[in-house]
Amino acid sequence: MAKDKTPVDLEITPRDLRFGRELKQERWWFGGDPFATAFNNALSITFPKGEAFFIESVKAFREGVSPKLAGEIRAFTMQEVMHSREHIAFNRKVAETGYDIQPLEQVVIDSMAATRGRPAIVDLCVTMALEHYTALMARLFLKNEHWWDDVDKEWADMWRWHAIEEIEHKGVAYDTWLHATRDWTRWQRWKLKTRVMLLITVFFWVNRIKGMKYLLQQDGITGWRANWGIFRHMFLKPGILRKAIPGWLAYFLPGFHPWNHDDRKLIQLVDSEFSDALAGAPQPGASEPVPA
């Protein structure tokens, strides 16, 4: 089995925070940019159901893990439950600005339904790939200190809070995978995880772009204007997809582990703002959080 490379002094700290309950959200809340708004809205809509799926996929293989990993799984669960709760509340605000988001929510529901009957190890592998993507985006969201300059502080704080916790727990699904596949050869592990990542990559970006187009259409932005704006956002400025490519490629290298790149310094840049919110913990295992 590959060596566990998660830092021994890593602390996964659930921070129980609530955002924007009383805030009136602007339709183009991301600095008046319809494309940045559409991307983040389309992403947020996936989180409540998606993170419930992550929790269940990891918990399915917690039997027999080390005490350290067991504690990390519990903390991961608590963080994901609270992320789901906050994005349920955020998505409600998106709908209140006039967007019809139900079809995008249905895409996620249908995707979850398609997993029924699939081997649990494949679900864990899917979770591992998607957690890698969320960690890559979290790194981008935190690395550029001006990323959120034109966003209302309440929403900027929510996305940054989510980002630091995604970085903290980025190795949990992977370490659970290493435990679950401890009797596999390195070739068997690499073959499955790379095939799944390739499929997830197509699924993830195609569906985010479709989601953006659906939301932009509701703003009257279609055709070449929509296509150019999406391309610019993804590849030019800020270039989310382009900037994710090096981290994505690293996933395919022998010896990959999420913590080969220790980016806890990014957490430290903003964590002091949330230090008063150590989790008044929701019950671990709750997979369908109800927003407060």
Summarize the structure.
With 292 residues, this protein is an all-alpha fold. The protein has helices at residues 34-59, 67-96, 102-113, 120-143, 153-168, 172-180, 186-217, 223-236, 240-250, 264-271.
Any chance you could write out the topology, listing elements then pairs?
Elements: H1 34-59, H2 67-96, H3 102-113, H4 120-143, H5 153-168, H6 172-180, H7 186-217, H8 223-236, H9 240-250, H10 264-271
Helix pairs in contact: 1-2, 1-3, 1-4, 1-7, 2-6, 4-5, 4-6, 4-7, 4-9, 5-10, 8-9
Structure characterization notes:
With 292 residues, this protein is mainly alpha-helical. Helix 1 packs antiparallel against helix 2 and helix 8 packs across helix 9. The protein is globular and about 55 Å long. It contains ten helices and no strands. The C terminus is likely disordered.
Based on CA atoms alone, the radius of gyration comes out at 18 Å
Specify the biggest β-sheet: none
* CATH fold field value: Ferritin
* Average predicted confidence as pLDDT: 91
Continuous helix count: 10
Q: In sequence order, what are the helices and strands, one letter per element?
A: HHHHHHHHHH
Task: Tell how many strands the DSSP assignment holds.
Answer: 0
Structural class category? mainly alpha
Low-pLDDT segments:
279-292
Regarding CATH, which class? Mainly Alpha
Helix content: 55-70%
Shape: globular
How many angstroms does the end-to-end distance come to? 42 Å
Strand content: under 5%
Tell me what the CATH architecture is: Up-down Bundle
The tally of structural domains comes to 1
